[in-house]
Amino acid sequence: MATPEVEVEPKDTGESIRKSIAVAAEQQSEQRFGSAARRAAILAAVVCVLTLTIAGPVRTYFGQRTEMKQLKATEEQLRAQIAELEEQKVKLADPVFVAAQARERLGFVMPGEIPYQVQLPPGSAVPVTPGVEPATADPDQPWYTALWGTIAERPYGVAPAPAPGPVVPPAPAPNNAPAPGG
Q1: Helices and strands (H, E) in the chain, number of each type
Q2: By Cβ atoms counted within 10 A, which residue in 31, 88, 119, 133 is the most buried?
Q3: Into how many domains does the chain fold?
């Protein structure tokens, strides 16, 4: 059987070419869209990997920066404390100041001086020196506990002074504690 040859008119050929071009263009656009989607997915994956790679060092950087600020603040506090202790060391190297502190806080006297201890009756008011808080002694505690409290407290008169100079010993303060040994 022989097939009759059909002569294709140029109109049909042009139409079939147009159809094939349209199909090819559609396939190309689908490929381009798929290609663009793949590229976008790869780009997103690269951005995620870079973000995760950089996140650790950035977090460490900010943590160390915060720690450095805290350490600088601590260093400043310690330097101020060192300066204060150096001033106190200078004061404590002065024998006049040490003698004044021994007289005031411990009730020491120099050889040849006569110590007096004023015993106030119970319930009488203690004269208050302006600017000095009255010392309150617990009557239930023995005398040596009160003495230790004066030693353990910050020394009187040891405050930052503009210029260290000779300290004039103050007059002996009245002592509310009973005499040692009694």
Answers
A1: 3, 0
A2: 88
A3: 1
Letter string b/e over residues 142-154, b meaning 16 or more CB atoms within 10 A of that residue's CB: eeeebeeebeeee
Token reading at 136 = 């309150």
Q: Coil, strand, or helix at residue 145?
A: helix
Would 40 be classed as within a structural domain? Answer: yes
Tell me the pTM: 0.38
Tell me, yes or no, whether 178 lies in a domain.
Answer: no
Q: Which two tokens stand for residue 87?
A: 């001033």
Query: Using CA atoms, how far apart are residues 86 and 79, in angstroms rounded to an integer?
Result: 10
Q: What are the pLDDT digits (tens) for 87-124?
A: 999 999 999 999 999 888 888 888 998 888 888 888 77
Q: What are the tens digits of pLDDT across the range 35-76?
A: 778 888 999 999 999 999 999 999 999 999 999 999 999 999
